[in-house]
Amino acid sequence: MKKKIVLFVPLTITIAVLDMVAVTMAVYEQNLALGIAVLLMLIASAVAFYKIFTVNRSMNRFYKNINSFLTPYQQDALLSFPLPVIVFNHHGEILWYNELMKEKVFAGEDSFGYNVKDLFPNLNVEQDCPPSGYGVEYKGKLFTAFPATAGHETEGLRVSYFIDDDKLKRIAKEYFSSRPAVAWFMIDNYDELLQSAKENERSQVMAEVEYVIETFVGNNHGIVQKIDKDRFFVLMEERYLRGIIENRFNILDDVRRIEAADKMPVTLSIGVGREAKSILEGEAMASQALDMALGRGGDQAAIKTKNGYDFYGGVAKGVEKRTKVKTRIVANALLELIQSSSNVILMGHRFADLDAMGSAAGLWYAIKEMGKPAKIVYNEKTSLVQNLYERLLENGFEDAFISPEQAMNLVVEKTLLIVVDTHTPQMLEYAPIYEACQNVAVIDHHRKMVGYIDNAVLFHHEPFASSASEMVAELLQYIGDKYRINSGAAEALLSGIMLDTKNFIMRTGVRTFEAAAYLKRMGADTIEVKALFATSMEAYQARSMVVASAEVYNHCAIATVRESMDQIKIVAAQSADELLNINDVYGSFVLYYEGEGIVGLSARSMGKMNVQIVMEKLGGGGHQTMAGAQLRNTTFEEVRAKLNAAIDEYLSELNPEPLPVEPGPVQMMELTIPPETK
Question: Of the four listed, 96, 238, 496, 497, which is most buried by Cβ atoms within 10 Å?
């Protein structure tokens, strides 16, 4: 409508110009020019009268349409409607609005003819209005708009009324922004950090840590209270927590720069309770989040909300605890549980490896010596430890193993289920056994994941341990010489330690070698253990081909196995280990086909990259240097794209500037596996 009125502007200017020309010609007695000017002026006047008639007809049709879709009562109601109302056509051009719209929304300004999409970009007039309406803003004031179609379909008239809820929205925003967020800050390695430090060095280090924490909390307008020597209680508002999350808890990096006398960096774990109904509930959520952060190795922040957990940081290695008090207490508690149970079932994760089988075998032999009936759940179809299984059968384990289906028949009220080398129900060898057992004990070293077994009567979890076999070897020492294991069980445990430490290279500590020394005293033969890692010539050739097919992307070696082959999981894991020998490679990833539409990933690192975080972005998990994932109903191209994105995201979180992407030494190639290896 406004566009039509604007059309009169050029006509008016034209008539005025022609009028001036005619007057000029009359003064200078130019009859011909005067006649032409008068003729053109008459034509322009005729066009103007026609436009006036057209606009009048359009306005009459518009008011007629309004009358057609409104009853007399509705017409009166529209004029006296207690809310701002606006009418516009299908193009969005504003045709009419009431006085309240002009006063409340447009602040007295004339907005006739403007496009509603330009004034209210959030107002979607193409779709049906949601029950909550559309939140719109005009000149700094907030409204809720409810558009609807009205009038004849040919005209496409639309009506929208506005609710002035600016004050309510600002109060609600302030309410949610000022909600309290509760947090626990804990120094991970307090005892180890200051164990050999002098008194003045201890005071200096702790003063630096406290200064960093207090400055950080103060800058975010929160309060902090030191509760214990290594624990701080923090309270702040939600608005400032958002900024901390955007900066990805940079206090973790600030604290890590502080070093003790022996150059050991300080690491901090943070648990935050967010969106709680009360401070009490927030404190409970913060405690759970702190436990999760510590269970994942420390040096990170965990935020617990009603929807789950979010994690930030986690780049440092787990800190080995030197005290064995906890191990002794757990050993005594486990002994009591075993003795009070009617029978024991031992179970590891799916696709059992040497660590899962070794830890289960060590416990089984000790339980057998106690006189308690015990069985190890073993799935021969999916197991990756055929060599160890056959050796155990030759060393006193003839009656140790049972299939998952048969194990279900052994579950009674006092059955004790001991889960080893995993702590999540979805990773268990046979989840129905866990669901049927009332008494569950967990022994695991993997960094804690969301959805862990939270109903265990005994949860022995040490993410800084090298392996579950190391943890079991420690427990066996405290259970006592009365229940000694034989050489077969000792070799099984040692094989698990050697697997997860890459032959005592990765993630080894003092307790790792102490456990190995104990197993050696129990009769473990290192030559026999080494033989358990032997593979066939076909598997060795396949591994070499996988390594040859790799390329380097963003400091990560990535290989893809598109063909199916025997022992693919073992080949993939060994290939990932081999790829770490390439210079300037932080992590290695091998993609392979598991069957049934599943693409698996095996990830390894030497500690520079936390492959657990990368795999968690793809729905998997594991440990800092050893992880994996499974993706269903997808293709290799999609998985590779997701993996590249996860690597980029992980590295960008550590470095604001992206690392240079280097071309791989070998381009990606399609693997052609010889027939004899399939």
Answer: 496
